[in-house]
Amino acid sequence: MTCLENYNDRLNRVLDHVYANLEEDLSFDRLAEVACLSPYHWSRIYSAMRGETIVATIRRLRLQRAADRLANSELDIDAIGARAGYGSPDTFGRAFKSAFGMSPAAYREKGSHAAFRAANAAGAARAFPVVVERVPERRCAGIDHTGSHMEIDHAMGRLFTTLAARDAIPAEPAMIGVFFDDPDIGPETELRSRACLPVAESFAIDAPLVETVLRGGAYAKLSYTGPYADMRGAYRWFLGVWLPASGYEPEDAPIFEAYLNDPREVPQSELRTDIYLPLKAAQ
What we know:
Layout: H1 3-20, H2 28-35, H3 42-50, H4 54-72, H5 77-83, H6 89-100, H7 104-110, H8 112-122, E1 130-135, E2 138-146, H9 152-165, E3 175-179, E4 192-198, E5 210-214, E6 217-225, H10 231-246, E7 255-259, E8 272-278
Antiparallel strand pairs: 1-6, 2-4, 2-5, 3-4, 3-7, 6-8, 7-8
Helix pairs in contact: 1-2, 1-9, 4-5, 7-8, 8-10
């Protein structure tokens, strides 16, 4: 193991611990122990290598989970805030509004998930932009993820650190998530997905990387802008309203998402994702 791989492995252990204990007390001293690094220096090493402070990472992940609960559950707002680590509704409200541009209550009522829900109820097949286009076959290196689709960024982080240690990140990396299971069926803890990044044909893919070939051919592309937490509603509209009205048949291949910007760099409301649904060739 190279020195870079050693440091990446330590910081990956920190993120594993954060994801596993997101609703618990995450003390700096404990995270330093997990990283096996000095309490005086580990957080600055994390910031320098990961592009954001550990405090920002924890805040972002907690608020992202809170947004998912606001959009996709009936859990009381105060309880959502408490589970996100906020001691009062006011502090939760301020933090959430800073990240999402509206209060938790307004988000639950008027977030983009509400627009997809209304379009579902109305059967509005043209409510959102969908285009059908041909996509070339792409060979990717991937890291498997099991659990909430909302946490695909955990695998994406591991993928980037693995490729960085091998000096194999392209100048303009294309971040892709491939999803194998329906989040509305079965336990969330068993959902299978894969973080992927296209690589050159000459690049040797070995453990922990998994080779993935994205099917070439016709796809329907839904261009989505907004928080990842609202995308479950987008899928329901895409598959339940647009597809039946489109005249197309889905191909036996997984949906994938292309992430066009970075949640560490832009507000949640400005996140852009293209959702690709594989289609059978016209008969």
